[in-house]
Amino acid sequence: MDAEPPRAFHVFTGAIGRWWPLAELGVFGAGSTVTFTGGKIVERSLDGQEAVWGTVTRWEPPVAVGFSWHPGRPPDRASHVEVTFTPSGTQTLVTLEHGGWDVFDDPAAARSEYGHGWPKVLDCFAEEADRPVDGETWVALVHRPGPSAPHDGSLFDDPRFADHVAFLSRMQAAGYLIAAGPFMDAPGEGMTILRLPGRDQMGEATRLATQDDASVAGGFFTVSVRPWSVMLAMLPN
């Protein structure tokens, strides 16, 4: 596809509800929504019912995402899907691997059915990923020590701080990270600036800041997610 890996990864995960053909390939059909949320893929119907399609097993933006796969089936009957995003010049080679067919009553029939279904799904994905990007969303993440953080000055030495560093590394790899660092007049506090492709991405930014960062999800840090705008940029000569 024409999109570069950060864009392709974002559309597959953060914007799945915009392109997945739910009317034909959803549990609840037309009118439902689907999102990656809380480490799971969840479809919600118009009347509030939920169906978990799978649980994320690999999350390496913008390189790969993997998940168990059981839409309309119990978790103990899950197969597994892994999608990789490989740069190819200014384009991306997207590879989807679906395995674990032995969980189906008729593995051959299931594999044949998905052999017809996945190309349709990926065509919808490619169409969305290749659309021109409409603007950007800038956010400031303000981090402060959380309820489980140490208060003896050893915050940066705590092993859980590595979870925050890992989050920042993932944001950098995805092409979202602009800057990050501590406030010098407030021990333990700091700010991160992210730039996400597309307008109206505050929901995705909040999901990343509160769920993808294990240091926040575990209470080591708290985070405020605030919309931010660039009014003036001084660039080096």
Report on the structure:
The protein has 237 residues and is α+β, with helices and mostly antiparallel strands. It has two domains: 5-129, START domain (Alpha-D-Glucose-1,6-Bisphosphate, Chain A, domain 4, 2-Layer Sandwich), CATH 3.30.530; 136-227, Dimeric alpha+beta barrel (Alpha-Beta Plaits). It has seven helices and ten strands. The strands form two sheets. It has a six-stranded antiparallel sheet, with helices on one face. A four-stranded antiparallel sheet has the order 8-9-7-10.
Integer-rounded radius of gyration = 20 Å
Write down the domain tally. Answer: 2
- Name given to the CATH homologous superfamily of the largest domain: START domain
Number of strands: 10
The CATH architecture of the largest domain can be given as 2-Layer Sandwich
Q: How many H/I helices?
A: 7
What would the average pLDDT be, to the nearest integer? 89
Report the top-level CATH class of the largest domain.
Alpha Beta
What topology, given as strand order, has the largest sheet? Answer: 1-2-3-4-5-6
Q: How much β-strand is present in the residues?
A: 25-35%
The major beta sheet can be summarized as: 6 strands, antiparallel
> What are the secondary-structure elements, in order, as H or E?
HHHEEEEEEHEHEEHHE
